[in-house]
Amino acid sequence: xxxxxxxIIGSGSAIPSLHRAAxxxxxHHNGSYLLIDCAEGTQLLLKKLKISPMRIDHIxxxxxxxxxxxxxxxLINSLHLIxxxxxxxxxxxxxxxxxxxxxxxxAETSLRFPLIFKPLIxxxxxxxxxxxxxxxxxxxxxxxxxxxxxxxxxxxxETNLDEHSKESHNPFxxxxxxxxxGGAGLHKLNKMQFLSEKIEADVSPARSYAYCTDTAFCPDTxxxxxxxxxLYHEATFMENLAxxxxxxxxxxxKQAAEIARMSGAGKLIIGHFSSRYTDLDPLLEESRIIFxxxxxxxxxxxxxxxxx
Length: 308
Ligand SMILES: [Zn+2]
Ligand SMILES: [Zn+2]
Known about the structure:
alpha/beta, Metallo-beta-lactamase, Chain A, binds zinc ion
């Protein structure tokens, strides 16, 4: 089975603690890496995890609270300093472009690499971008400011493709034109490499991952991510602080578990824990009352998507 994993870089909330960094995750799918949110300290934590930021080509930003993007300008600057030339794609709220642009302008930094920004669409579920065998979708969640969740779905396996589609993937049918724009011009991908990766992908079932933070309890979320294999949902508070959760547009453990149950998720990982909690076991136990297949998303942990 081709790798499809998420590594939790930070599982904390607004105030980072010694135990938990603020929110960021790295998704790896068959050699492609993408970052979801980029809190302060993310680039140092990537170093600690021995992951080169040069491998990241796509960054998704859920919303403009600092615990989700205050590390972005620093990461972009470091990539510039260490000589990146490959394009970097960023997807996030429309104002994010102006913020980054201003930070670069006042520092008189002219990046060596193209920074390609695409704003997220406010309503409904939308395809944000695709990479090889993965589609990345956005959908709105319920927070104090506009915020998006993300749904990452593998493209349909060969066995599910219709005859016409199969023909279009036949290596002998025609010469495929596979090109990609790079910083220094137009590069052709290695055709045979592409085809062999395609064949490898076809033997595994389509898997999916969903990322939902920050959000109040929002039943609509379940309809956007039906049948998801692995769901990351915030559980900032325990149930006895349900009123605080509601007032701050966050979720409790039981509400996260309820979304997992409603969406028919294979597995739930909870995170974005309030810094008031040092022992997380009570949060795990509370979530498991409603959804047994819950785990804690702790800093540095890697989860294989599709694992039962
Ligand atoms: Zn947050
Ligand atoms: Zn927030």
